[in-house]
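Table S2 (text version). Query chain:
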Amino acid sequence: MSQETINLGYVSREQFVPYHKRKERWACIVAHRRAGKTVACINDLVDACLRCTEHNPRMAYITPLYAQAKDVAWVYLKEAIAPLIAHGATINEAELRVDLPNGGRVRLYGSDNYDRMRGIYLDAVVLDEYGDMDPRAWPEVIRPALSDRKGSATFIGTPKGENAFFDLWNEAQDDPEWFTLMLKASETGIVDEEELIAARRQMTNDQYRQEYECSFSASVIGSYYGSMIEAAEEQGRITSVPHEAELQVNTVFDLGISDSTAIWAYQQVGKEIRIINHYEASGHGLAHYAEKLTQWRDELGYRYNRHWFPHDVEVRELGTGKTRVETLKELGIPASVVPKLSVDDGINAVRRILSRCWFDKDKCKDGLKALRQYRTEYDDKRKTFRKTPLHDWSSHSADAFRYLAVSLKENKVTKPLVYSNAGIV
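Corresponding structure-token output:
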């Protein structure tokens, strides 16, 4: 049977031609606002669905929130398949889904309900604004859905600090299995110069660099500490910070129960605060973190002074009747409790000390990402920033650093503490 040629009417912008011609299974596109990445990726999905030789191809376009999928991509998807309606294509408004004449299907999803995708198979997927997605969605659900038919994936977005999308972009750069494309407004010519000049006048430098010049290093909008961390980098205070063997080490914890636990380790030299290590993990009991302190002592030579914890470490657990202070003591960690201050006071305490902080660029890499990303919550309805921090992956390390700042006035150098059971000295 002869095949009919149907013109879908899509004409690619020249900047996306290399993407449409790619041979790699994986792709990562960092693009400025209004570059046209959504239109390009929607049409690429439709084309891939029509060309797929598998039985009943399945394609997905995923955004962080389901409502975003409808706002961002639904109109473009319906426009892309409009010429196919006369040939049997159908549109399902309720499920944000289109069915194509070859049995293929393209559907929109939100990662806020990623469990909805469990058990399905996918031949191709686009993940839009991957850095804002639930970090469990890709490894636990989406990636496995591609396995049996060796489906492909494209990650797209505009930078929002050094988050998961930043990590993905960096890793993809040197991997021959990945296609990568960065589109800056100053280079593409998609947005004319007059409009860019107007945007510069009406935006902060960080906002413009992030939204139009694809800068991952620009301070995250609403970030509490982003500009100060950037200043530390420019001033050479994010560098190799050696542990001084003759000085004692203090640690500060943010304890999670079902969430992550974060630890900062630091030394004080006059007014300097030298942040020499950082650690964060989840799904472990307190014994795991006692072992981490022992490891630092044995492998790095740390001699501990004080271990600081938030005030809720004194609350008794229903299951054991013990406070976590008591549990920590049994593990050989005498806990010092951070003075109780409001979150706002703690944030201001961090801002007061950051100009005196030096960070080890390697050991504190993940912690620095969290400090850059820690930001105020945005109220979509009122179109304004709220007074409370957004609780996300960055919160645990940022909270621990807040406790560090609050504890400094109370922190007096003492003789090294000798621990009962763990023998941590």
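Notes on Table S2: The domain at 14-213 is CATH 3.40.50.300 (Rossmann fold). The radius of gyration is 25 Å.
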